[in-house]
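Why does residue order matter? Because the sequence determines the fold. Keep that principle in mind as you read this record.
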Amino acid sequence: MVGAAQFGGGTSLAQTPPSERELRIYAGLHDAAARGDAAEIEQLVAEGEKPNIQDANSRTPLHVAAFLRRHAAAQALLRLGANANALDAEHYDILTIAAVNNDLDMLNIALASGGDARAIAGPHHDTALIAAAHRGHVEIVRALIAAQAPLNHVNDLGRTALLEAVVLGNGGRNHAATVEALVEAGADVTLPDRYGTTALQHARTRGYSQIARILENAGAH
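Structure:
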């Protein structure tokens, strides 16, 4: 199972993968997606099952495949008409699920099938890029930048991907590389959070010297 997602200031509501109970009672496409059975998915859709059917938490079979890293199942569902941008009950799409999971293969499958890197997702109006930057998932960040994800989107907590990488990161190698990737892509290093504190000020306060140097070299103050 995946770890809970937190993008908070405090924290946001968590992404909720299917529970063990839900997995036991799933039938049809949800069950086939959970097991990663692409052949059964093809058969069920051919027999008339709808690829965007939702469970009680508005998860489509594609959401289930994304949560459980079932790549072949996701590809089959997308090929057969699943909506790459569908939102579950907590307003998460599969791009953001893949970003939290650090699942680059799933992210690329989604992007290749119409997944929108600019989409707003989650209860705090985040993006997949914000979710990935928060966690220091560098390759995911780079892939989303290449897919034209919005660099300076501000979520409901008043933070951009750059601010999240500093405020919610640990200052280590992955978060430094994330900050560097965002800066090189043109993220605005001067934008403050809703309290007026910039990414550089946060980095200095936390003693993140490498990140502070990256920001200073990019003209932050």
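Confidence is low (pLDDT under 50) at residues 1-13.
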